[in-house]
Structure prediction request, 692 residues.
Amino acid sequence: MPIRIVRFRVCSGVIFLFLLIVGLGGASSAQAPAPAPPAILLGTAWYPEQWPESRWEADLALMQQAGIHMVRVGEFAWSRMEPVEGHYDLNWLERAIAAAGRHNIYTVLGTPTASPPAWLTQKYPETLRVNQDGRRAEHGNRQHFNWANPKYREMARKIAEQMAKRFGHNPYVLGWQIDNEYAEVSFDPETRAQFQQWLKARYGSLENLNTRWTTAYWSESYTAWDQIPIQVGYGNPGLLLSWMRFVSDTWRSYQKNQLDVIRANSDARQFITTNTMGSFDGYDHYTVEQDLDLAAWDDYVGEGHLDPIQNGAAHDLTRGFKQKNFWVIETQPGSVNWAAINNSLDKGEVRAMAWHDVGHGADVVSYWQWRSALNGQEQYHGTLVGSDGTPVPLYAEIAQLGKEFAKASPALAGTTVQSQVAILHSYDSRWAIQWQKHNDKYNPVEEILSYYGPLRVIAQSVDILPPTAALGQYKLVVAPGLNVLSEAAAKNLAAYVEGGGHLVLGQRSGMKDDDNSLQPERQPGPLVSLLGGRVEQYYALEKPIPIEGKWGTGECPLWAELLSAKDSGTEILIRYGKSNGWLDGQPAAITRKAGKGRITYIGAWLDPKTMAQAAKWMTETSGVKPALGVVPDGVEVSARYGTHNLVYVVINFSKEPQTVHLPAAMEDILGGGSKQSVDLPVYGVAVLSASR
Ligand code: GLA
Prediction:
């Protein structure tokens, strides 16, 4: 039965009384407008279906007390929403949303399609995915569905439609999460046939496909579409890349199947998102995210402690999907249950991590999960209340965050991250390198981080974007390991340099074309003439070799490219020292002024000390200035810009207390007053507001 919520404000405080007025009838749930949620929300994953309804009130009261304003609900509750095929029961969900609303808590609804019910997979076994070894998945875990299967899509669409019709206009529903952590694919014969159709649409003719994949090699030439296999990890590079693109397009259409029906039945103010997993590369996120309103990710440290560089890069990658603020829709309350050692984050570290999230552009930080189900696979995971339903020690830290988010929300409202530096990232390139690492220690994500880390420290803000993104606003664009360089990306980069930007290409860039074929020129392929130099040969290294030049003396581990400077205007920045004879004294990094800008190629994997010097040179040459100014080592600075104000988030991730001197007096939002410097204990946080 739909319910109507009416809110009365008592005094000027935060106490709200809601009356339930029952009886509007029909499928719609017209309700009084909800108060606007705060700009920065604290949230948690709540599973009301796992608990007696009589318990909800106590949980929601504890959430409200901690300053939690958002619950994500429903993403695994299909068997509760549709206990029997075609018989939908969403009344309990409506009551849960209303109950949360009475505590000023907004709901994000997850569609439950990551965990189809047993009746569904029993009746329609073709909806279960098939592993690479040909075995069909069984019921009892999650992600056992086949993302390409038409019957599964029909069932998924129906449940999403039922939910959207019921809650698409509910004022307490902020938005939607489709499914949960897209990951598992299927290798069944029907999916293979779809892949072959996809290839036909992309390549048009077998002749074209055979040429572009060079299938003359090892008699791979195809004379019929249905001869083409699925290959993963090892195979023809064109086939491997095509399969990953098919996987990505199929996730996109899987998502669109639900997205269209939600959009058709919901208010425009309700966003649609899905939860991604940081650097996970099981599909091309740029393909899938283009249809969504908001990027959101699940931010887990796992074993050990927060690495602000690695985690910051994952934030910046996620922010780059929609090029705007994003959500941390899941994060760990202390510990997880799936790492080798599920240690807890230190006291104060969860709070520091939440502010680090906000600094990088998160508008929501939501803890997974509120309380462990008494049974089920994740009994040991961190929570905010224990199995007895009372707060665990971390709850107090979350409640402190709740107060701080409320305090800082007015200043942070409408602010976003702005960067002078962009790092280019492409899934095609990461896959291409992973399939043929050439040195098994070569990790393309670590390559990106080796550039990102020192650049982030200097600039205090970095965007991570695909190579076809608009780049005009950046003073410096760095492309580490841009191995696959499409024609469109090459044109974009050349135009950026011609227009006055500084492009830095990292090792292994510009080697492959859009089919993962070798470019018919040496690296960086179509950018050779702009660079006035090229890669003569690449070498996988058994051990680090010496390098020397403008960035001091250091070492090159893993990988070395022998460069040549063909143009008289091309400057040699560093050279290799004595090693295998081939590389001795040869150029390792070169740069050239081109058009109104500059292009640089770094062929050596640089050790951290040399990379720090290289980053200093890159930023100085490009006129990049730090957002706040120089701070002690281990202190992370982030900045969010509004129309008239600017908010700095400053966090001490070092092992010692630190003092940060500010370039001007600023309002200390958390501590109060105007400050010229701030003292930060270990994991200490300052949120500072300045006018622009
Ligand atoms: C993922 C899932 C959650 C939960 C957590 C545990 O992010 O989305 O359902 O399993 O991991 O860390």
User: Anything to note?
Assistant: The pocket of alpha-D-galactopyranose is lined by residues 180-181, 298, 300, 330, 336, 368, 378, 381 (CB under 6 Å).
